[in-house]
């Protein structure tokens, strides 16, 4: 990862350089061929111009005038008769020119033709234009251009291309590595962040705002860090809560066991202390069972065995079961449920949910109050609403009541009742049924828990 910007820049550079080299080569050869073709066309046009003049005035004076015109130019002209005899020339005729003059032209078109255009293998490019007077060919105008001038022109063009190519390459190098650095910088930051996370430092803040795949990856890592940080705090709080919940009953068990072992105790006193020890042991057993159920839920080993259930009969049996236990506070349970609603639930697990909510309402309700269970049915869902007239839940605590070991009473005394796991288990069971649970509350007026199940 340390050199990823260099590697990425190098790969980009190789690819871009290859593409640029191909394009430069195509452009270079295209320009060279175009320039050579332009020179050949210009040479042929110049020869045709001379032949046009000579066709009008084919006399020795005009012939010598044409030859004289070309004597100071880069091009050379040779005017011959129809039989090949040289009538005039602008410069001395060398061997290479004689070879072209000796070629059998055959029938030369009226617009002339190119005799030689291979500038790499010949000393001259050459064209010939016929001189026709009254439809009869009287001679020919040969135009020559030395290929050394073309080579110089191509050398200049090549030099310009090399300079431009070098500048383009340097700009490409700088641009590629700047771009690769800007692309890999977020990746390097994310790599460092994950290294810190692996060492236990979860205080990660990436602040990468790009709306692309890199931004999405950064957001995922940031979310992971936040979740891990939250889980770390949760685990610490969880372990502290478990230790607290176990320490209290175990302290009772140990203390009263020491007392019960005294020989001076009467049978009645010993039975009293043994009863306390049993109650505390039952409390520990319940706590361990709750923890086991939560662990099963987290591992997705929690089995829900649904069956079609008449909701009214199901709730009525629960109300009958708990009503007697609530009479010591003179609390009544009112059930309002249509008799034709059938739901698919795990009866054992869902009974645990309802009883847990009812016990929670009972514990926080005043004397002679009412707990109501109301069932509402719509086309898409069924709602089970459990409402009490208790002390209510403060607004700052309401969002946290389904968290493990969370209690509104922060003192965590035995008087607060329960282990703080009940509502967490209720939420998990309801969600395993594909439903949701929500709570609303007003301090001093009571709380409302609403379970929503999808219609079967």
From TrEMBL:
GO molecular function: ATP binding
InterPro entries in UniProt: BphY/WalK/GraS-like, HAMP_dom, HATPase_C_sf, HATPase_dom, His_kinase_dom, HisK_dim/P_dom, HisK_dim/P_sf, Sig_transdc_His_kin-like_C
Keyword vocabulary terms for this entry: ATP-binding, Cell membrane, Kinase, Membrane, Nucleotide-binding, Phosphoprotein, Transferase, Transmembrane, Transmembrane helix, Two-component regulatory system
Enzyme Commission identifier(s): 2.7.13.3
Gene3D superfamilies: 1.10.287.130, 6.10.340.10, Histidine kinase-like ATPase, C-terminal domain
Regions that span the bilayer: 9-31, 161-180
Localization: Cell membrane
One Pfam family here: HAMP
Catalysed transformations (reactions): ATP + protein L-histidine = ADP + protein N-phospho-L-histidine
Record-annotated HAMP domain positions: 181-233
Membrane topology: Multi-pass membrane protein
Broad class of where this protein is predominantly found: membrane
Domain (Histidine kinase): residue spans on this chain: 241-456
PROSITE patterns referenced in this protein's UniProt entry, alphabetically: HAMP, HIS_KIN
Name of the protein described by the UniProt record: histidine kinase
Organism: Ectobacillus funiculus
The organism's taxonomic lineage, starting at the top: Bacteria, Bacillati, Bacillota, Bacilli, Bacillales
């Amino acid at each position: 990862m340390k050199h990823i910007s260099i590697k990425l820049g190098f790969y980009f550079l190789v690819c871009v350089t290859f593409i640029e080299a191909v394009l430069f080569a195509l452009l270079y050869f295209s320009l060279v061929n175009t320039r050579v073709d332009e020179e050949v066309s210009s040479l042929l046009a110049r020869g045709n111009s001379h032949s046009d003049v000579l066709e009008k005035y084919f006399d020795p004076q005009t012939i010598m005038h044409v030859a004289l015109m070309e004597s100071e130019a880069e091009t050379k002209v040779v005017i011959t008769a129809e039989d090949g005899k040289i009538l005039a020339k602008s410069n001395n005729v060398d061997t290479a020119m004689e070879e072209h003059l000796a070629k059998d032209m055959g029938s030369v078109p009226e617009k002339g033709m190119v005799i030689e255009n291979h500038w790499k293998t010949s000393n001259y490019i050459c064209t010939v234009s016929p001189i026709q007077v009254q439809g009869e060919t009287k001679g020919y105008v040969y135009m020559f251009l030395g290929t050394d001038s073309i080579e110089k022109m191509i050398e200049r063009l090549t030099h310009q291309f090399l300079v431009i190519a070098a500048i383009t390459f340097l700009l490409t190098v700088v641009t590629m590595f700047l771009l690769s650095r800007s692309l890999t910088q977020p990746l390097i930051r994310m790599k460092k962040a994950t290294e810190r996370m692996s060492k236990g430092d979860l205080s990660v803040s990436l602040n990468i705002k790009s709306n692309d795949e890199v931004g999405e990856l950064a957001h995922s890592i940031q979310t992971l860090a936040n979740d891990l940080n939250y889980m770390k705090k949760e685990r610490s709080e969880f372990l502290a809560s478990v230790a607290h919940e176990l320490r209290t009953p175990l302290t009772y068990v140990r203390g009263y066991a020491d007392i019960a072992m005294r020989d001076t105790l009467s049978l009645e006193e010993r039975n009293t202390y043994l009863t306390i020890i049993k109650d505390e042991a039952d409390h520990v057993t319940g706590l361990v069972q709750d923890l086991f159920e939560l662990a099963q839920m987290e591992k997705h080993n929690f089995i829900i065995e649904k069956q079609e259930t008449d909701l009214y009969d199901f709730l009525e049996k629960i109300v009958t079961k708990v009503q007697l236990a609530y009479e010591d506070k003179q609390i009544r349970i009112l059930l309002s449920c249509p008799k034709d609603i059938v739901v698919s639930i795990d009866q054992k697990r869902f009974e645990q949910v309802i009883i847990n909510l009812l016990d929670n309402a009972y514990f926080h309700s005043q004397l002679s109050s009412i707990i109501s269970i109301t069932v509402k049915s719509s086309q898409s869902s069924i709602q089970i609403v459990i409402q009490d007239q208790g002390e209510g839940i403060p607004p700052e605590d309401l969002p946290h009541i389904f968290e493990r070991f969370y209690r509104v009473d922060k003192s965590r005394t035995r008087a607060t009742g329960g282990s703080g796991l009940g509502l967490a288990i209720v939420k998990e069971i309801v969600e395993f049924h594909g439903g949701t649970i929500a709570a609303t509350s007003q301090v001093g007026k009571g709380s409302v828990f609403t379970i929503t199940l999808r219609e079967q």
